[in-house]
Amino acid sequence: MDFLQIGLVLALVIILAIPLAKYLVNVYSLESTKQDRMFGGLERGIYKLSGIHTGDMNWKQYAKALLLSNIVMFFISYLILRFQGVLPGNPSNIGNMDPLLAFNTAASFLTNTNLQHYSGESGLSYLSQMVVIMFLMFTTPATGLSLCMAFFRGLTGQRSMGNFYVDLIRSITRVLLPLSILIGLVLVSQGVPQTLDPTAVATTLEGAKQNIARGPVAALESIKHLGTNGGGFFGVNSAHPFENPNGFTNILEILSMFLIPVALPLTFGYMAKNKKLGWILFSAMGLMFLVFLSVTYFSELNGNPSLEKMGISQENGSMEGKEVRFGIAQSALFTAVTTAATTGTVNNMHDTLTPLGGLVPLAEMMLNCVFGGDGVGTVNIIMYAIMAVFIAGLMVGRTPEFLGKKIEGREMKLIALTILLHPLIILVPSAIALATQMGTSAISNPGFHGITQVVYEFTSSAANNGSGFEGLGDNTPFWNISTGLVMLFGRYFSMIALIAVAGSLLTKKRVPETIGTFKTDNSTFLVILLATVLVIGALTFFPVIALGPVAEWLTIR
Amino acid sequence: MLKNIRLSLVLLVICGIAYPLLMTGVAQVIMPEKADGSLIKNESGKIIGSELIGQSFKDPAYFHGRVSSIEYDAAGSGSPNYAPSNQDMIKRTEKDLTTFLKENPTVKQEEIPADLLTNSGSGLDPNISPEGAEVQVSRIALERGVSQKRIYNLVEKHTESRSLGLFGEPKVNVLKLNMALDQLK
Fewer Cβ close by (within 10 Å): the C or N end of chain B? Predict the structure, then answer.
């Protein structure tokens, strides 16, 4: 039964990703398409109200527009959070957010991370949930998708990089908004609340009083997954029965967060007029995903050895931190998908995962290219692909080419920096946190697991994932500032560097294909690509993984 | 700069105000009960709870739900986030196990499914596994003076299958089952 339900979900993902990939090609087409008739009116209205020109941009203009618009969104969000207590739309009388927590929250949602150092029920007013959280939940995946498309255009040698504002707005009007409305309503039909009434008060069967927090949950729930955002309405996120009431909503949420990242490599294949290349990239990520999924599934199914020793039946797997309605199969699948797609929503508590089960989400975020978040994940795997071409080129002594464009020093420097930055902003802050009282005082689980808690927090920030080993007491100045900065670096440095790479490739002349050209659309390249990811991406983190999850596993086995 | 501010505000209105209000309006018109949180009311219209949110049950005459460090206080949500290696979790489990065996003297330790002795992720899990309900049947029958068979039938009736027969796990809603217990004559 477990294999059947997991297999069916994965099959559905692939079946639905193919038409979506084709749809996305048209959404971001530089020519006019049939879609314009349907969405053009609304989009022209937005251009007019905002005073936007829709002409082509070069890479510097594109990067500038991306940065400026994001800075403005950051300040608007920060201000609303700081003053939510006195603003309207606050029926449950929630206070203003303090400055450092507001900085962390605004940075977190701006960078598509959605790391939450507050608890939604008590930390945010309904207004903040709507105009800060939901607003950013649309604009940040739209920013990621725009970046991805600019990158694709540069690599595939299209007319120009496109226009950032057009890409941003189309991502919302043609992809995220219509799907969110549809999926949100299906979620309501399954029991996800959508109301502006305050907390309900019940008198339980045993006569006690029970306060039941609710709110406009469904609207947030659908965009939370579609936009690979991950910040829950409630503290426990999609483990909360109101966010994810049954097995059906669970697979709907899995599909919502996985479809766009899975479709994008195929979209790239279509845009490059090389479908096979799209499928090679897809397979590389798909193979890594299957390995990770199996490790977490079997590890959780085996249960917790410490409880087994006490004679507690572990026949149904390790159920601490999991919900009965999901069981092991749907929990393991959700965990593997949410950290692959860097969504960060959780339907079980990752802190309670068995050591090897918890290693999987950590490793997926360290690689950061197993499908990845909307837009940015595909860009990351292509970055590794260029790296693979470069290494292979050096070995045979040829100038490396990707899609007929010469890869030279300038591009490689930017790509190498981007790849190196990821471990740097994870390992250095983790080392500081583990060496100081500021960091270690937040650890809630003693021993090796505590190391994992700290590393997980920074990995999740750097990968813009947002899930956490939530036992960590992270609402302190140290954690709010450090993770806030890691999230901002993790997002914007690579974005700008990669737009520059795309801009420089766009202007290069295409070299004609010869018999000596290194092919990037066959299985040999697939193997080289996987090896590159493994050697460069994974080995960097091996020591810290050995200290955390592996050491814990050895102690309780 | 000005156009970025204008754009942000326009998008804020569309995504942050119009979208959630539209969703609220539509949801409230076509499925108001679900949109309000699937609340259960008694004959006099008082709210007893929500179908989807678990409640704390201590009375031995009721089926008990899963461990909840927040005592099913649905104003919040959460779990203690115990690592599998955490000694505090081992101690908690030992304590709960002793209590359970004392309350259910006919049950052997290896018959207790793990979900009854572990904290759910949300602390609000409304469900237990069907086995989790079955091991409590003899206690309930004794406490209520009803035949075990009638309680078994009730558990069977309240066992919900997987979504679409495929996704998730079979489960029993503890609140609904206990309400049905109270209806038994």
Answer: C
